UniProtKB/TrEMBL annotation:
The chain crosses the membrane at residues 92-117, 123-142, 149-167, 187-207. One of its GO terms (molecular function) is DNA binding. Residues 7-61 form the HTH cro/C1-type domain. The lineage of its organism: Bacteria, Bacillati, Bacillota, Clostridia, Lachnospirales. This is HTH-type transcriptional regulator ImmR. Keywords: DNA-binding, Membrane, Transmembrane, Transmembrane helix.
Length: 213
């Protein structure tokens, strides 16, 4: 018997309609129909949920002939590889975005000719970089990227924020401008990076726990 028929029989024995099962599983009725007609296969998480919902064992739902078993195993393996690939891509995009923005800001700060308008310094230093760091750390922790290695975001933020130069505000005629001064280390800004990254990770961890509940 194919897995689709097993899912259909289990649902019928439980006295559930496709609409009711779909609502409890968080999928569409069409998805349930496709699974039961073997037009597509449910992922392993959905199979586990249906096992609990229909009060049947996983062995009962997945115990098939050798051909069917191999087909479903191939599907699960392909799905797992796809999820891993998307997760790895997300990690690369997040980290790359942060470092590209940081490098761009550093190039602008260190190669600017003379002075720069104070508002631009405020946007780059106190809005763009902190907001981006907060978003990335929350996302990393919420999705549990890197496992315990996610805490390396804190020293990483400390190092990148440490290299941002001090600024000195002055007035030239009627325009408020900023002159960049190299003072190493930039402890105050480094402390800000540490605080932002730590708060972001803690918020992401809390978000992850709430989603699991």
């Amino acid at each position: 018997m194919e897995i689709g028929n097993r899912l259909k029989n289990a649902r019928n024995e439980k006295g559930m309609t496709q609409e009711h099962a779909a609502e409890l599983l968080g999928v569409s009725r069409q998805t349930i129909s496709n699974w039961e007609n073997s037009k597509s296969y449910p992922d392993i998480i959905s199979v586990i949920k249906m096992s609990d919902l229909y009060s049947v064992s996983l062995d009962h739902l997945l115990k098939e002939d050798n051909t069917m078993k191999q087909t479903y195993q191939e599907f699960l393996e392909e799905s797992t590889n796809t999820v891993k690939a998307k997760k790895n891509l997300s990690k690369i995009v997040l980290l790359s975005t942060y470092f590209v923005v940081w490098i761009t800001v550093m190039i602008l700060f260190w190669n600017v000719a003379g002075t720069i308008i104070n508002e631009l310094d405020m946007i780059l230093r106190w809005i763009l970089l902190p907001a981006l760091l907060l978003f990335i750390t929350v996302t990393v922790a919420k999705n549990d990227y890197f496992g315990k290695g996610k805490w390396l975001c804190v020293p990483g933020a400390a190092i990148t924020f440490l290299t941002v130069p001090y600024t000195h505000t002055q007035f030239l005629f009627t325009e408020e401008t900023v002159t960049f001064i190299f003072r190493f280390p930039n402890i105050p800004y480094m402390a800000a990076g540490i605080l932002i990254s730590f708060c972001g990770l803690e918020a992401g961890i809390l978000w992850n726990k709430i989603c699991k509940k």
